[in-house]
Specification:
The protein is an alpha+beta fold and about 120 residues long. It contains four helices and four strands, in the order βαββαβαα.
Length: about 120
């Protein structure tokens, strides 16, 4: 496995926000896919008290090379002050699937930039 792969998770307080984060990450090729799971019941410490909330989880499939950009997108677009952003390494998987993840997370060619299209300058 030449690439290194991760699953990145975050949670939000609504399905709509989870779907928007998923769509933005896939559209920007920061994740090959994103799955919404929920609602889930979360219990956590926040500002000195135990809180409970219904949340939606988003699981992103990506490469280690795209993690920092994906984390930035989540941070910038998320409604929480401190969003969960956890990357779990993928230690094994279907080679065909992982190749697909790598292919889908390659930065898109910019038609205005000849260096990214492979066209001669």
């Amino acid at each position: 496995m030449a690439e290194a792969y991760v699953q990145v998770t975050t949670t939000t307080d609504s399905r709509a926000e989870a779907a928007a984060l998923a769509k933005a990450a896939v559209a920007d090729r920061l994740a090959a896919c994103a799955q919404l799971v929920g609602p889930v019941a979360s219990t956590y410490w926040w500002e000195g008290a135990i809180e409970s909330a219904e949340e939606w989880m988003v699981v992103f499939k990506t490469t280690v090379d795209r993690f920092d950009e994906l984390a930035s997108l989540i941070t910038d677009e998320h409604s929480y002050d401190t969003p969960e952003i956890i990357a779990t390494p993928v230690v094994a998987g279907s080679m065909d699937y992982l190749a697909w993840v790598a292919e889908q997370t390659e930065p898109a060619d910019d038609p205005a930039d000849p260096e990214t299209t492979g066209d001669p300058v």
